[in-house]
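Table S2 (continued). Query chain:
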Amino acid sequence: MADVLTNARKPPANARSAQQNILAGPILPTLLRLAVPTTVVLVAQTLVGVIETYFIGLLGTEALAGVSLVFPVLMLMQMMSNGGLGGGVASAIARALGAGRSDDADALVWHAIVIACIFGGLFSLALIWGGPWLYHTMGGRGQALEAALLYSGVVFAGSIPIWITALLSSALRGAGNMQVRRW
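Corresponding output:
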């Protein structure tokens, strides 16, 4: 990971022209160049969500109801990992790199991994132990509750990798290096 942050501090050869284009270049091509990758990712994520919902709908209304019980908790976890704590990781790394403290930025990456493991583990444990009560309280009964518990068990068994991915992507955002090159 240290190499990724180190490479983030070394602007590529064409960085100066890219910076000049943002300030003095043509507006529309610059905006499109910046917006197209993000738009493509958003469209792909939306399509995955639609296809997932369609597939789950084919499994029956109970499966769809079960997934709808788990969805708010999954979104809470993703917003905390990407937004709340992820924003803190990105901010801390950006401040360390901006102050020229690359060793601190490298250490922050390892701290982010530890934090990801802790929070991912907490989410897993909380939903394994408290999931039945939570989903029942949210209105889950019968087959819908069984489907929610099955889906929740699978999804939240992978909480730690989800958190690690989110916080490491936040570290890359903080480093200003969203396109890692190894040459």
